[in-house]
Amino acid sequence: MYRSNTCGALRASDIGSEVILSGWVHKVRDKGFVVWVDLRDRYGITQLVLDEDRTALELLEKARELGRETVIQAKGQVIERASKNPNIPTGDIEVLVSELTILNKSLLPPFTIEDETDGGEDIRMKYRYLDIRRNPVKNNLIFRHKMSMEVRKYLSDQGFVDVETPYLIKSTPEGARDFLVPSRMNEGQFYALPQSPQTFKQLLMVGGMDKYFQIVKCFRDEDLRADRQPEFTQIDCEMAFVEQEDILNTFEGLTKHLLKEIKGVEIDKFPRMTFDDAMRLYGNDKPDIRFGMVFGELNAVAQHKDFGVFNSAELVVGIAVPGAASYTRKEIDALIDWVKRPQVGAKGMVYVKCNEDGTYKSSVDKFYDEQDLAKWAEVTGAKPGDLICVLSGDANPTRAQLSALRMELANRMGLRKPDEFAPLWVIDFPLLELDEETGTYHAMHHPFTSPKPGQLELLETNPGAVKANAYDLVLNGNEIGGGSIRIHDKETQATMFKHLGFTPEEAKAQFGFLMDAFQYGAPPHGGIAFGLDRLVAILGGQETIRDFIAFPKNNSGRDVMIDAPAHIDQEQLDELHLKLTHTS
Amino acid sequence: MYRSNTCGALRASDIGSEVILSGWVHKVRDKGFVVWVDLRDRYGITQLVLDEDRTALELLEKARELGRETVIQAKGQVIERASKNPNIPTGDIEVLVSELTILNKSLLPPFTIEDETDGGEDIRMKYRYLDIRRNPVKNNLIFRHKMSMEVRKYLSDQGFVDVETPYLIKSTPEGARDFLVPSRMNEGQFYALPQSPQTFKQLLMVGGMDKYFQIVKCFRDEDLRADRQPEFTQIDCEMAFVEQEDILNTFEGLTKHLLKEIKGVEIDKFPRMTFDDAMRLYGNDKPDIRFGMVFGELNAVAQHKDFGVFNSAELVVGIAVPGAASYTRKEIDALIDWVKRPQVGAKGMVYVKCNEDGTYKSSVDKFYDEQDLAKWAEVTGAKPGDLICVLSGDANPTRAQLSALRMELANRMGLRKPDEFAPLWVIDFPLLELDEETGTYHAMHHPFTSPKPGQLELLETNPGAVKANAYDLVLNGNEIGGGSIRIHDKETQATMFKHLGFTPEEAKAQFGFLMDAFQYGAPPHGGIAFGLDRLVAILGGQETIRDFIAFPKNNSGRDVMIDAPAHIDQEQLDELHLKLTHTS
Predict the structure, then answer these.
(1) A403-454, pLDDT tens digit by residue?
(2) What is the CATH number of the domain that holds A370?
(3) Least CB–CB distance from B169: residue in A142, A562, A583
């Protein structure tokens, strides 16, 4: 037996017991006549003590020489601690060591195993197994486990069935790039790893499974932006015989349950906002509504004066930044520089200081009088003491720029509180999205999303205006889930494929099995998928998903710990009937 | 709202309620003046009724023409059924239909959606979404869900943490063939799909995670025997600071819990048997101990007579087949033919009838008298009325042949009862296995398995004799789980790699990260993995895992429903810098 107790278990009530502990040497304090060893495991730290009065000298010597992270087993008696440590649960006791066994030695770790480590991201990733010993990482993984368990329990209690769908499926050019898996047994053919179990969950609905869920890995071979992973985890759900309202209620229930169980936060009813309103009011389809700075559109009150920049703009739009009228010229110039950065892309910024005395001072005083500016204040909701920031130009990019500014200011002003939770349903998404480059439309959600009732005809005349039965769940400015009511009849699905530019042959080759299935009594159905990595990170009060993944990959899709991907043997290539076209 | 109730919900207490049901038309019975429709969903069947007295004629007409598997919505009143059906929970009531909406039509399904269908395996796999509508398949999937939930709950309650390990990892030539995934971003390099999360779970132990579990997909690109799948699901577990005894107790606990919760079967203590005993007594490392026919080794009592076949054999071994002394000559000849089939491979079979009157009649009466045969009966435990079947030859193949015969006879005699459960720990596996073809040793379990204490030196002198801290859990003749105590120090691991024929460079290239990790304070650890597909099938009282997988692949690794794997675009190949060496 390696241990009778863990290093987090012993209390004052255990004083007098003989115990065996195993763990890692966290710290050794050698005061000459007495040596203390902090012994650490997943459950906590227990102080071991050895001293000249009560401990054999060779044992004391052995303890003195223990290096950090050595794995040891210690036997001894639980005794009361002279100077108690109220900061740890085991702080009332220590263990007077009578036997000490070194189970495994350790080299000096490349970074300190402390909550605040001296290791940078790269080295921590290379030695991720050491990083996981640190409380913040360990606790994130345990937190994720708790979340997953809670999700499964809730959905199972609601009658959802966890069904495992296959990982070796078929490539579909639609959407992001697939990871491909050459088949040895079927020469020249490839499997693809699923970007999501979308078609399978729909087939389960056709199969009468009624309520399906799965916590499942998905794969996208995309160029990785910061905080994207080539493999990620989804809470994937689908229901039959439902309308949008049923889905929203069901998964609002799940999210409320998680917020309550995991965070102790109770939220009554989640607000809902149309996609159009979200874009108009926040310039963003995933607005963070924990704070204000709602957009005010100023075309009516700012155009048709002599200011050509505004007059020629499709959209003039501003936000009232609370308490920022006191910004110095230098601070405001810095803001203007910020919006002009290439990543944001604004041409410039007009501002209005709403002074405490009710007067206004703007960067466009030449064109607008106090009365004009008062109207701007009214539209943006600015109060005395606020600063109105105004951008103008083509509607879409201008909204995106002002949204970026709004988020930046909120971050700077500490308005994005990690312990505050503001969920929001964004609904009525457009069905199609115009690819500006090619001038063609593609599905905003995916090609199985159903248009709003009665809007199918619009596909012919004004495809961009067709709204979908599609919805996103937004939490604190992050999309944590998204889904739709699906098309469930073959004709509508064929029409959709046509408008997405598929020939009937292409549609049949790729989704023939789904369209076949729709001929055999497909029920109305819809679903949603949550990004578990992000959901866990947000509920964990953090923004970086990598901190909640045991073995994440870096921005080049590499696992730097195991050094993958890697070159393979020629023999393996031969078996797959493949040849590299270059050798790098 | 598509439904107020499911098709399995309504009871006599609902009589008088107005309800809305949705589901599939299971059957229409048209008696002219009255039409009954069996409406089916996941939860059951409810009878709809329409008749000339109470239903509008056009509604009656509509109902009459409903094809099987049409998806409909029906509104109506719950009424008492004239002739009750005690076989279904809704049998006391029916719904008098006032509104009927066709939600989706269906072609005639290619096989009947009944518990006993007329569809063969191939057609059912192609239309798996229809197959899933059938109760046996649907119930298997729900049963699997219940099992998974119960496993997670039990392990989580025991302090195990569900940690997701990566799917895009590194190829290792050890063991079965990997599925490979070409990396687009890292030209010429490949990921591999995990055959198991073995190294990651060991790294989690190095990381102090202490107790890990995961229900996880694993992948093996092997030529598929019947009832193997290229992707399969494991309950994967690992613990730190444990000895073999701790692991056996913990997972005996899990298995007992499942047997009790899922099957209502209580089993006290699982028996244990060494690998050597299992081979000696059952000729098999996964013996089915639900029945007897234990091997009796007859060398001592059958050799050194004049029977050359036995005298020259390494092993003479028999079983007593209960009650089979009455077999006719023809039946016995058929048994002899059976063992001589190429799949079994015996040269012949000697038999002894133990007559009810205490006399013996054997096929080798020329060489053995009654006294000799009485000794055979003693060794094999044969009683009057039994038939002793004896095989001889080289020990290993002879044991395998007799084991095959034992299982065949048990199947024929109905001794393998699906509702009887006989778990067994097989322990003390050999560390290494001789590859007869190449004359080299490879790891029987995997290269991380630790030898029994003190046996490391034997590796040099008699590698085949080294026993491992490795164990299998066997249930009803199937290996449902297997694991080992791992090596946790770098030196032993290096020695192992050496004996497995790795050069230090190869070991470093493939497992360098693990050996590195072992330098930083790896704790003693061990684990186990259960094959979930098989475990579910056995607890479900069946043998075929395919029946418990939503979307299984066939013996060529194909998903015949979605038609995968498939050819891909040249463009996709180009992006991966790959070329096919043949085109087929």
Answers:
(1) 999 999 999 999 999 899 999 999 999 999 888 788 888 888 888 999 998 8
(2) 3.30.1360.30
(3) A562
Write the secondary structure of B110-160 as one string of H (helix), E (strand) and C (coil).
CCCCCCCCCCCHHHHHHCHHHHCCCHHHHHHHHHHHHHHHHHHHHHHHCCC
Dihedral of the CA atoms B129, B131, B132, B133 (nearest 10)?
100
Lookup: tokens for B279: 């081979």
To the question of whether residue B221 is assigned a binding role by annotation, the answer is yes
Report how far apart the first and last C-alpha atoms of chain A are (Å, whole number): 52
Q: Are residues A341 and A404 in the same domain?
A: yes
Q: Is residue A133 part of a domain?
A: no
Q: Would you tell me which residues 464-503 of chain A have a C-beta closer than 8 angstroms to some C-beta of chain B?
A: 488-489
Based on the domain organization, do A443 and A407 belong to the same domain?
no
Residues paired with residue A20 on neighbouring β-strands, in sequence order: A75
Q: ipTM for the complex?
A: 0.95
Residues of A in contact with B562 (CB under 8 A): 169-170, 199, 513
- Chain A environment of B43 (Cβ under 8 Å): 210
The answer to whether residues B407 and B451 belong to one domain is: no
Shortest distance between the Cα of B460 and any Cα of chain A, in A, equals 24
Distance of CA B485 to CAs B29, B429, B448, B462, B496, Å? 63, 12, 8, 21, 14
Residues B188 and B80 in one domain: no
Q: Does A168 contact B231 at a Cβ distance shorter than 8 Å? A: yes
Q: How many domains does chain A have?
A: 3
The reply to whether A396 and A319 lie within a common domain is yes
B47, B10 in Cβ contact below 8 A? no
Residue B74 shares a structural domain with residue B168 = no
Q: What is the spatial distance between Cα A191 and Cα A188, in angstroms, rounded to a whole number?
A: 10
pLDDT tens profile B437-475: 888 888 888 889 999 988 888 888 888 899 999 999 999
Mutate which: B164, B183, B533, B555, vs A, most A CBs within 10 A? B164
pTM for the model: 0.95
- Domain hosting A521: range is 139-167+198-272+423-548
Last residue of a domain, one of B364, B388, B412: B412
Distance (Å) from the alpha carbon of A130 to chain B's nearest alpha carbon? 5
Q: Do both A374 and A468 map to the same domain?
A: no
CB interface of A with B, residues 40-69, below 8 Å: 40-43, 69
Give a yes or no: residue B212 inside a domain. Answer: yes
Query: Domain with A148 in it: what CATH number?
Result: 3.30.930.10
